[in-house]
Amino acid sequence: MAPVALRHAGRDGLRRGVWAVSEHSAGILLFRYRDTRLEVLLGHPGGPLWAQRDDGAWSIPKGLCGPDETPLAAAQREFQEETGFTVHGKFMALGSLRQPSGKVVHAWALEKSIDVSRVVSNTFSLEWPPHSGHIGTWPEIDRAAWFDMPSARVKITHGQLGFLDRLTEDLRRGGR
User: Fold this and answer.
1) Residue 40 placed within a domain
2) Integer Cα distance of 69 and 91 in angstroms
3) For the domain that residue 165 is a member of, what is the CATH number?
4) Residue 115 phi/psi, 5° resolution?
5) Cα–Cα distance measured from residue 56 to residue 33, given in angstroms and rounded to the nearest whole number
């Protein structure tokens, strides 16, 4: 996939300080058990805006839904683009959450373990610093890691916290 050029809002009619985004994204929350402890896979966003942020910055691998694809198909495509891994299996729908930005994220969970040292993400281009004329290229996810649930609750962006709660509840109801 070609890099995505993001532009800082300005004369195009968007409010200053807001990045142009689609209304719907979709993602996949992988989970696994290490011994008896539940762990989830989260990705840290790449680029200069996120370089110094850790707690509250991590996300499920996700991205924009295309106009002609289902949210689950978009989630699978985005997972592959952002991690380099293709995932198939019995997906558990975690529903949708409206983010503070107004975007709606649709998520599914899947029990699968991947080697985070092998994660390779696609890239995006961004003018940085703003108005400098310099275009840099960064990975969409600069690293991925497995977190136990207490740690994941600290690391994940606030708007996606509900997906961790839903996963925990769904697994509890299923006897796990």
Assistant:
1) yes
2) 17
3) 3.90.79.10
4) -85, 110
5) 23
